[in-house]
What does this fold into?
Amino acid sequence: MKPDRRSFMKIAGTSLGIGVLYSAVPAAALTGEAGEMFSFLGKRNGEKVTPFSFVQLSDAHVGFNGPPDPLGTKAFERAVEMVNALPQRPDLVLFTGDLTHDTEDKDVHAQRMKQFKEISSRMNVPLIKCVPGEHDAGLDHSGLYREFFGETYYSFDHRGMHFVALDNVSQGKPKVGAEQLDWLKKDLARFPKSAPIVVFTHRPLFDLKPDWEWFTSDGDEVMNVLVPYENVTVLYGHIHRDDTHEEGHVHHYAAKSLIFAFPDPAKVADKKPIPFDKDQPFKNLGIRQVQANAKGSTSTSSIAISDIELTAREFLGINGVHQILKDPSL
Amino acid sequence: MKSFYTRFLLIAFVTAVSFFSAGPMSTPVNAKSPRVVEITAKRFGFSPDTVTLKKDETVVLRLKSEDVTHGFFLRALKLDEDISPDSPTDITVTPTTAGTFTTICDHFCGANHGNMKMTIVVE
It folds into this structure.
């Protein structure tokens, strides 16, 4: 199967529920013509894209205690075990918000943040990056969050990919805001339009279900900044369920939560968590392993844990590189 | 008898003045002052939880909070306001489309914020 020509990065796999395992640039894509293009892109971007994998986890809500999930942090801890059991260690873990559940008691909230850091530190990965959710940062405009996790929006490069953390919760509203938009424009300005960019944030940047607060009010403005870039993938959480959305050439992917699941808004009127099933405590959170490999065929994952779902998604495609080759002005 | 006629004429005069003044005075006031609908936000709901408006009628939604800052978001009517506990927020709206719309609090206000909503019916 030829690499996808429409986008440099395309997520080809499906479903892991408690988190998502991404494989960036499968090794097969580095050979032959594609390999030469990746080398060219590496020179352009300053760092060659080389194969690696990363995991997205979301919505642990440490401190939550309620009927939809009386097991508290069990699913989160199981996910940590699962990440550690992966046959190939991921380079990094992206956590897309709601690390903790909110409380007005600052000391209690601080304790929850400590607990989150303790559990996540058990993961045998070199790098963990987070963005806040509204339950972490909505009540105090991310004051406590920043004490524990640092800035709420930032960017970094990893193996030729540019990662952008966006904060759409700290103003109390589902909003990014003018200051962060300006920062985003400046941050991206130094990259060629073909650079592979992964944006991770908490809320969807499009109107997924406004009545359920599944949107970002200035998401269109964010997308206007991102759309000129040809290889953008947006990862988010918040909705406690899988979702994929394609708008233009930008792909948006949601990860399931580590605490409880929400139903499909197209099928139910009320936003109520799916009830806890004591016989299947991790149902809708985790694991039903499905993995599509780079050639599009479905194969069995080697992940040993059987009760938590891990979604494997793979990036491939080289069109962005083609465009660089065709346009000498870049 | 004289006092009877005097009293009769006086009552008739007052009645007539009252009747005619009510119309001309009240009509322009109503035309210039939209109906005010008060909505109060309090963790984690709105009161009343349903408001009925008339299509093409301009109304003022007077939003109040009894505790913390809340939001008032309705994409269909392009409403996105904060409701401060310090002072009311007035929004003038003229709905042009009939229907039933869900309005949510979109300013995070606590654990059950995600289900804080009300209904606006436009007839």
Remarks:
- DSSP finds eight helices and 14 strands in chain A.
